[in-house]
Specification:
binds flavin-adenine dinucleotide; 3 domains; Uridine Diphospho-n-acetylenolpyruvylglucosamine Reductase, domain 3; alpha+beta; Uridine Diphospho-n-acetylenolpyruvylglucosamine Reductase, domain 2; binds uridine-diphosphate-2(N-acetylglucosaminyl) butyric acid; about 25% helix; Uridine Diphospho-n-acetylenolpyruvylglucosamine Reductase, domain 1; 20 strands; 8 helices; single chain
């Protein structure tokens, strides 16, 4: 019989390491339990929070409703041809383990996304991306439970409305779907290697290694470990803000004032700025107030040195937003889900 727990501390379930109590807590280990769950009083009458690895959220207070930790497990490999395969996983599988399993099966496509924290089920929410690849490039379908119509739906990649750190599930239909399973179309040979991201190429050259799906994964793991804080050591949720996209005209004005500004073309007459550069330039890198701070190797990452409260991190984020706006007339958007 499934069981709802009461008054569970979420500290171990979020990578910021923030203490917050869930009034009710449920582990979804079997897909069929979802039908039982939606009929429970706590589900029907209180707010709900679906939880994966807790690596993209900031808990600012105790949660007065029901937290549902999605723990559905299993992977499935379907060979389509000598060239391609579909590799899928249930939502509760750890993302990095899934990537490693794809590499063990010699499947290409996800190697640049090695070592991203969190679970497979959350990967479509913000269309996770790193080192020149986003999951939208490889998603075949996303299977989700529709909480409104109470049925399972399968979305094609196009239907997910993926965009930079965004999707249907994070924006237009936020809260409506529980992601159960995700399938990826991957290559079995003639892998398309993506080494354009400068840091990957220089890692491979430095270590005199031929690019392959395996060596790219190793290079990505090495780069990430060198600059991103390990949540097991210092609490964080990765990039706290998104990289802002501004007009070419605005960029030229900024470039005239700050010639060393870091930016990349992002579609017609638009530029994507490195928010980490803006935050560092505005003097925030390494800043610390109490236990809330800005990481000293990556200014886009806010950290909890131990006992910070979610509200303190949120307040630091607001100070940074204000400072970036007054210095560069650029509005940053928050990437992390504030709860
Ligand atoms: P959670 O934090 O548990 O949840 C995130 C959101 O998804 C919440 O709104 C939650 O309610 C919702 N959700 C979770 N599971 C489900 C479900 N099954 N159905 C419906 N909704 C659900 N992200 C990148 O894109 N690229 C990076 O390079 C990257 N690097 C990171 C580095 C570090 C050190 C850290 C800590 C984070 C990084 N992130 C990065 C952010 C994070 O890893 C991703 O956003 C990841 O997908 C979050 O997964 P999670 O399972 O932890 O999600
Ligand atoms: N930079 C600075 N100072 C800093 C940080 C960055 O000047 O403190 C400049 C550097 O010039 C650097 C450039 O910004 O070359 C880009 O930095 P980096 O390569 O570290 O990437 P990012 O733009 O800061 C993005 C993603 C990361 C992802 C990396 C690698 C966003 C919001 N963040 O960071 O994703 O891992 O690229 O692809 O797009 C996340 O979303 O949580 C996340 C970690």
């Amino acid at each position: 019989m499934p069981k709802i727990e009461e008054r569970v501390n979420l500290k171990a379930y979020n990578t910021f390491g923030l203490s917050a109590e869930a009034r009710y807590f449920f582990r979804l280990e079997k897909q069929e339990d979802i039908h039982w769950l939606v009929e429970q009083e706590a589900f029907k009458s209180l707010p709900t929070l679906w939880l994966g690895g807790g690596s993209n959220m900031l808990l600012t207070q105790d949660f007065p409703g029901l937290v549902i930790k999605v723990e559905l497990l299993g992977t499935h490999l379907e060979i389509l041809s000598d060239d391609e395969a579909l590799f899928s996983a249930y939502a509760g599988e750890n993302w990095h383990h899934f990537v490693l399993e794809s590499l063990e099966n010699n499947l290409g496509g996800l190697e640049n996304l090695s070592l991203i924290p969190g679970n497979v089920g959350s990967s479509p929410i913000q269309n996770i991306g790193a080192y020149g690849v986003e999951i939208k490039d490889h998603v075949e379908w996303v299977e989700a439970f529709d909480l409104k119509d109470r049925l399972i739906r399968r979305f094609s990649a196009a239907e997910c409305e993926f965009a930079y750190r965004d999707s249907l599930f994070k924006s237009r239909e936020k809260g409506r779907y529980v992601i159960l399973r995700v399938s990826f179309r991957l290559t079995r040979r003639n892998h398309k290697l993506r080494v354009d991201y400068g840091a990957i190429r220089s890692q491979l050259v430095e270590r005199n290694i031929q690019p392959s799906i395996h060596s790219i994964s190793e290079a990505v793991i090495s780069i990430r470990s060198s600059k991103l804080p390990d949540p097991a050591q210092i609490g964080n949720s990765g990039s706290f803000f998104k990289n802002p996209v501004i007009s070419e005209e605005h960029y030229q004005q900024l470039k005239a004032e700050f010639p060393e500004i870091v930016a990349f073309p992002a579609g017609e007459k638009q530029m994507k700025l490195a928010a980490g550069w803006l935050i560092e330039k505005a003097g925030w890198k390494g800043f610390r107030k109490g236990d809330a701070g800005v990481h000293n190797k990556q200014a886009l990452v806010l950290v909890n040195y131990g006992k910070a409260k979610g509200e303190e991190i949120k307040s630091l984020a607001e100070d940074i937003l204000h400072s970036i706006y007054t210095t560069f007339a650029v509005r940053l958007d928050i990437e992390v889900n504030i709860i």
